Amino acid sequence: MLTFSAISKTYYQPDGDIQVLRQADLHLPAGQTAALLGESGCGKSTLLHLAAGLDQPDSGQIMINDQCASDFNDGQWNHLRRETLSLVFQQYHLVPTLSVLDNLLLQARLADRLNPTLQQHLIDKLGLAPLLGRLPHQLSGGQQQRVAIGRVLMHQPRLILADEPTGNLDEATSHSVMELLTNLLKDTGSSLLMVTHSPAMASYMDRQWLLQAGRITPVLARDT
Amino acid sequence: MMWVFVTLISHYRRHPGQALTMGLGLISGVALWVAVQLINDHARSSYADADQLLGAEARYWIRSDNGLGIAVPDYIGLRRAGFDPLYPVIETQVRDAQGRSVAIIATDLLALPVGNGLGSSARYSNPFGASSWLALIQPDYQAWYPQSLATQLGIEAGQRLILASGERLPPALIQTQTQQGQRVFMDIAAAMAILGTDTFSYLGVGQLSEPEQLRLAALLPATLTLVTNHQALDLAQVTESLHTHLTALGLLSFAVGLFIVFNAVRFSLLARQGTLTTLREMGISLGMLSIAIIAESLLWSLFGTSLGLVMGYALSQLLLPAMATSLQSLYAAELGTLIGIRPTQVLLAFGLSLAGVVLALTLPLWLRARASIRRQRDTTAQWQLDQRGIRWMALVAMGLLGLAATLYPWLASIEQGFLILALVMFGGALLLPWLVLSLIEACARLLPKQQWLLRWAVSDALAQLPHLRIALMALLLTLTANIGVTTLVGSFRTALGDWLETRLAADIYVQVKSLDQEAIKRAPWLRGYSPRIGLDLRWQDRPTSIRGLDLNGPDTLGMVLAQDQGMPDQQVQDQALQAWRLGDGPVIPILANEQVRYLAHTPLGSMIELPTSAGLRRFEIIGYVHDYGNSSLAFYLPSETVMAHWPAAELLGAGLWLTEPSAQIDPDWLSNHLSALGIKPGQWVLQGEIKRISFAIFDRTFAITATLNTLTLLVAGLSLLTALLAVHQQRLPEYAHWRSMGVNFNQWLQIVALPLLLMLAVTLLLSLPLGFSLSWLLINKLNVIAFGWTMPLLWSWWPLAKLGILTLGIVLTTLTVSVVRVRQTLPTAIQQLAGDSG
Q1: Residues B76 and B218 in one domain
Q2: What positions does the domain ABC3 transporter permease C-terminal occupy (chain B) (predicted)?
Q3: Are B473 and B551 contained in the same domain?
């Protein structure tokens, strides 16, 4: 689903260049989940940005869904994000003026991919039924993240890129959200690459990689 | 403390564009207000200077009853009798070698009272300061020209103007700061020699105690009269309305500027919300933060005021010529060509801009003080809070509009009129956000669920409204003012045109003191002739004209009375006009201009007493006529009646009707034929020319209004641009996330542009009834109170359409600029989307 081949990325700063990725490789098969671990500032988010087309590598090749995305222009990336990818952030990024239901359906509507059966299934599983008419600011952090996850899954993307999705939540809520996410991924068949520095959250994933000194090292590979 | 301030200020290093827009808002608001203020103050000080010209602040004049002037021995006799504060004046019109009329005024500078007059406490000074006045009174003498007159006559410094008599005026000195009017000023000895006269036009008299006044009056020869000088009062009175109008426009500009400041401060606080909250979280007290913010406001005020003053000064210099010409045309008031800025004006401008910034800061700071630190991070809760604020604003708006309605029946002065206007306009402005909010909520309820993008766009208006509402309110104010003034000007122009059509029925108007009437009647190329006679006097302590009309003149036969509310129907008025023509009986019917009705508060049917040669005589007002542009009161009677009661009435001129249309007549042929009748070039003017001049004066008078209106609209546009740029900058992370979900540019544009257009539509729609109310008040109330003129209110859709197109253009331009800015910055925002977590 997602392959990085010899990806390098350097940030040029006045007080010295920072090479965050050095010939980094990874391969995430379709339908699998993976966690990317590493210390703060090691380049985890950069790698995620490169995978989402939010930033460009200095060298190397990125393959997404068997397409070489390294040379994509802005329009092609936008199309890819609309059709194939979904992003989940620590900050939820719900549209504050839209109701929970409208937020939940937003990305699926954009991709013209509404599925009433999946909609009802996700609402039930995420426990959002009593909250559908509310506005985002009327929800707790955990509830908002559940809506954000529901929005991504409703879109049925081939690949989900998640950047510390539970970073704003307490431990109990984090576990509950991760259980939900991994269970629902089985229903949709999406792949997931999640950046985290929490081994506990990483344990929900099929694979675990460690990003260190610009290189990616596998630390766990579980057969699914 | 210092580092708190530095932390706050450092925001602008990263966002220079925000600093620029904030500065522009402040500067433009201050500049517009300062420009109007400078012009008004300058005009008023010019009147004061003009009053002091030749010691005209003197309370009395001594004039001759027989029109022969004042003999030198009479003047010397009065001086010898101990009346020092007396000075002689010659005021006359001459023609130069090219036939142009030149006004001359002359006095004896050494005779001007300087403060130690007999029993007088008045102080007088040389009106021209110390500027080389010795050269003025010594041979070869000097002739002082105002700059505009010198330009008009083509005279340069040192040149001598040659008169038609062959005499030459003394060498010219061009003055820039004096208010001698469009007149040449010179020493009286030089004037007497050049003009070949041995009498003075009149004597000026300084302040006298009552016994001195009585003694002087008793001492005067029988042919001389001591009269009170009303000149200063008259000029101040007649121009006050115009200045009140301008002040109101200036305050409107400032109010719009204030809205911009409010907006700018709000955005700068909003943009630094994170920093402010972080500082609070670090233990900085709200008090210390407030001090830092106020210190920043002081800096902004200093900056805005300094540059605003410079810009305002430049603008006032640009607007002054139009204003000066209008005042000269309408009131014969002269303005100097150099505007000076006084320290008080600088302090006032600084004080106002500071007050504006502090006022703008008060509400956000108060809200910040009320909100907990945790809530300050929650922007969504803030726009919810804003909606409550909008509902409170609507309540205040209702209160203001209710107050305006309550005060309306007592409306009797210009100031009250402007207060009601302000209440209506600001009431409307405060109501606007609530109307927009209600519309959004209604749309959100009514739109079908399938129209999700449209629903999203409508709901996005809720997020945009808190940021844009101030700019929309400023836009509403300017649109309302524009509609009101445009309708007023349009109605006035149409009324003036219609009035000129009926009033200027003759083909040619001549202005002469004597005419060979028999020769005129015999001229085969003339089919009609209507002489006008008259005199000027004072009635109700105001300058008043008595005019005698030829009953057989085509213009008198076609005379139309003013039709206004409270006037009898046409048939009754026709009967009244018939009675006026007969003009006999114990009480003589008289017609008056509308100014008598509205400025002198003399209703129809009033019995009035006018001073005639046989003493006070009673007249009954039986009708009014329109008399646009006249600042004096006027009464109209048949010529015979005027001659019977005022034998001293003079021929003022006549209207001539040609047998052929004037357009088909060769000007040279006409000039020759008129000369043959004793009417020289310069003494006659074609009807079309009068109309052209009238409209030129009219257009110049309202040019300054139109300019201020356009500038205010542009400032409101700038306010909107500032708001849009700020809102887009603040929402960039949100837009970046939309983009990361696959929202394409067209969808994004729909979501952000539709709410703006929706809000603009509500603003435009609300500006229509408000603008119409404004024009109704201006035409039917304020104009009548100020000038005594009535006119029908005429709606014209084309100027409104033009205004709508201009506004749409401004809004689309601001939208385009902000959209381009978003497109430039969005890629960076997308890169920053996930923060730097790893």
Answers
A1: yes
A2: 249-372, 709-825
A3: no
Kindly state whether residues B411 and B484 are assigned to the same domain: yes
Domain hosting residue B364, numbered range = 1-51+231-377
Sheet-wide strand order for B172-175: B172-175, B143-146, B183-187, B101-107, B86-95, B202-205, B60-64, B224-228
Please indicate, yes or no, whether residues B474 and B530 belong to a single structural domain of this protein.
no
Our measurement of the distance from residue A55's CA atom to the centroid of its chain's CA atoms, rounded to an integer in Å, reads 15
Q: List the single best residue of A48, A54, A156 to mutate versus B (max B Cβ within 10 A).
A: A54
More confident position, B836 or A200: A200
A112-160 pLDDT, tens digit each:
888 898 889 889 888 889 999 888 888 888 888 889 888 888 888 889 9
CA B382 to chain centre: 43
Contact B319, B704 (CB under 8 A): yes
CB atoms within 10 A of CB B231: 17
Same domain, B424 and B538: no
Q: Is the peptide bond before B516 cis (omega within 30 degrees of 0)?
A: no
Q: The domain spanning residue A203 has which CATH number?
A: 3.40.50.300
- Give residue B384's pLDDT: 65
Q: pTM for the complete prediction? A: 0.72
Q: Judge whether A81 and A31 are in contact, CB under 8 Å.
A: no
**What pLDDT, on a 0 to 100 scale, did the predictor assign at position B245?**
67
Residues B248 and B353 in one domain: yes
Structurally, chain A folds into a number of domains equal to 1
Helix (H) and strand (E) counts in chain A? 7, 10
Quick one: pLDDT at residue B339?
66
Range of the domain at A197: 2-221
Q: Which of B183, B200, B228 is the last residue of a domain?
A: B228
Residues of B in contact with A48 (CB under 8 A): 834
> In terms of CA atoms, which chain B residue is nearest residue A152?
B741
Q: Which of B384, B453, B837 sits opposite A137 (nearest CB)?
A: B384
B463 inside 8 A of chain A by CB: yes
* Phi-psi map region of B615: left, alpha, beta (phi>0 left; psi -120 to 50 alpha): left
Q: Which of A43, A97, A195 sits opposite B462 (nearest CB)?
A: A97
B74 at interface of A, judged by CB pairs closer than 8 A: no
CB contact under 8 A, A163 and B462: no
Residue B507 domain-assigned (yes or no): no
Strand partners, B530: B655
Q: Which two tokens stand for residue B705?
A: 């209004």
Residue type, position B642, single letter = V
More confident residue, A51 or B339: A51
Report the pLDDT value the prediction gives residue B634, as an integer from 0 to 100.
Answer: 92
Domain end call among B349, B377, B405: B377
> What's the gap in Å between the CA of A96 and the closest CA on chain B?
6
Is residue B504 a part of any domain in this protein? no
Task: Tell me the C-alpha distance between B395 and B420, whole Å.
Answer: 18
Find how far residue B49's CA is from the centre of its chain. Answer: 20
Provide the 10 A C-beta neighbour count for residue B402.
12
What residues in chain B have per-residue pLDDT under 50? 54-56, 115-130, 374, 836-838
Q: Are B836 and A41 a contacting pair at CB < 8 A? A: yes
Q: What tokens does A118 get?
A: 């999946």
- The Cα–Cα gap between B833 and B838 comes to 13
Contact B742 A44 (CB under 8 A): no
Domain-located, residue B824: yes
How many domains is chain B partitioned into structurally? 4
Q: A93 touching B, CB under 8 A?
A: yes
What are B399-408's pLDDT values in tens digits? 999 999 999 9
Whether the Cβ atoms of residue B544 and residue B593 lie closer than 8 Å to each other: no
Count of other CB atoms within 10 angstroms of residue B138: 12
**Residue B835 with chain A: CB contacts under 8 Å:** 45, 90-91
Same domain for B727 and B650, yes or no, is no
Tell me which residues of chain A, numbers 123 to 152, contact chain B at a CB-CB cutoff of 8 Å.
135-137
